[in-house]
Amino acid sequence: MKKIALYIFFSTVALVLFVLSLRIGIVHLHSSIWHLLTHHSGTDATTVWQIRFPRALGAAIIGAGLGVAGAIAQGIFRNPLAEPTLIGLSSGATLGTIAVISSGAAAYGSRTNAESAILCAILAAFLVQFLAPNKGYGFLLTGIALSAILTAVAGLVISISPKPGIQSLSFWNFGSLALLNNQTVQVIAPFIEVGIILAFFVSRKLDAYSLGETSSHYLGVNPKRLRLLAIISMAFLVGASVSAVGSIAFLGLLVPHIVRLLVGPAHRRMLSFSALIGATLLLLADLMARTLFQPHEIPLGLITSLIGAPALIILLRTQKSQWVAHD
To answer: Does a structural domain hold residue 6?
Structure first.
């Protein structure tokens, strides 16, 4: 009953935030949202359905994807500090996005843009795994180092590119939903859907894997194959998200800690709640980014850092994480 109540509560909060995202903004609406459901012409309708709706829908989809990616990362590396940003995925995706756009090979929001981000995220994850001296914190330190290198290379590409307007790509370092439109959401949604499906496919095996590689092997789990599928899943989730909105800090790190505290460590249950809470938090963060200092908009990554870092510190001080799943 507790889990059902939690699911209803967060679903309601997410729905309320979604409606508020459609309603609130610099442009004041003269019509209600319910009226605009059947009227798609005029300034109010254009503002809601062409600007605010894709932004709110994108926030929900991307938040869900990053929440799931964080849960998979912490499960597959058996480390509470594992997070897509820290293990090189986000930086690889950022570099892949900037490289194809600055070279003129693809435009922002295109399918090629998303595919390049996903491919580079996969390559970055495998490079970290290859270079890491050992598992655990050695893996994370290698990921942090490689992320710094890839971020520097992305900045260099932006600096030397002759393409007009390429300097605006610097927003990828902080994250923003400002450029999202209906077409971009349609491009990234299938990739995130594939990533979530893969994540649920490996979720049961992650429960066994949490016991250790040797024990999971005797339980019929192939650790190498599991890591491969998990990395591909995270690359789809993070690569597609970064290609559209840039790198969003702390969401993938914080959400699994919240979920584990609420519903326990069993991964299949964790993933569904991680998707829901990730969507809720990103909707909240984007609403704050748009409205706190109107008419100025705060970079989304700054909001998630301001919310996520203190919350994570509190959770780490009050919660003893349990890493072995029990059904």
So the answer is: no
